[in-house]
Amino acid sequence: MAEMYPWFKSLHIIAVIAWMAALLYLPRLFVNHVGLAKGSEASEMLKGMERRLMRAIMRPSLVMAVLFGGALLSVPGVVDWSMGWIYVKLASVLAMLAMHGLMEKWLAAFQRDANTNSSRFYRVVNELPAVLMIIIVVMVVAKPF
Ligand code: HEM
């Protein structure tokens, strides 16, 4: 397992970068989608972009990030469970997973032309994954406590 550690970490970081990119981009598409007329060419185009982003990037990269994160947890000696950073990291990752779940729900509403949230709402939502990412990266790299 120890030999696999650098490979697990490489694949974990690659998956995390793709997942973060999608989590930060999808709300931007929602911001632009809110003002468009239902059934319009532009609205249908955004529906396609949002759907493909979720299916081709956001879902697979989530699975890979969790899979290789879990693999890293199972490598003996990688995590000192007497330290606090790993608990803050995993709690922040749970919040990130909840964000993903909400984006699935909002995507489904847009696909049905049934979105009820404002573009301001999605602008605020857009910041949350960024804040969580900062906390997670500082915890796992600096391991401050
Ligand atoms: C369930 C999901 C996750 C689990 C179980 C997990 C677990 C881990 C573990 C055990 C390590 C190795 C730490 C070490 O080598 O000292 C690691 C590394 C890392 N994780 Fe995660 N992680 C998860 C999700 C994430 C997310 C969502 C991000 C970013 C937003 C992230 C960013 C990183 C980074 C940047 C590293 C490399 C740290 C370094 O090189 O020192 N992880 N992760």
Which structural class best describes the helix and strand composition? Answer: mainly alpha
Poorly predicted parts: none
Order of helices and strands: HHHH
Biggest sheet character: none
Secondary structure tally: strands: 0
The shape, in one word, is elongated
How much helix is in the residues?
Answer: over 70%
Number of domains: 1
Tell me the number of helical segments per DSSP (H or I, 4 or more residues long).
4
- Identify every distinct bound molecule in the structure, by name, code or SMILES: protoporphyrin IX containing FE
Fraction of residues in β-strands = under 5%
Quaternary structure classification? single chain
Describe the fold and architecture.
79% of the residues lie in helices and 0% in strands. The protein has 145 residues and is mainly alpha-helical. The chain has one domain (2-142). The model has no long low-confidence stretch (mean pLDDT 97). Protoporphyrin IX containing FE is lined by residues 9, 12-13, 16, 20, 65-66, 69-70, 72-73, 78-79, 93, 96, 133, 136-137, 140-141. Protoporphyrin IX containing FE (HEM) binds at residues 9, 12-13, 16, 20, 65-66, 69-70, 72-73, 78-79, 93, 96, 133, 136-137, 140-141.
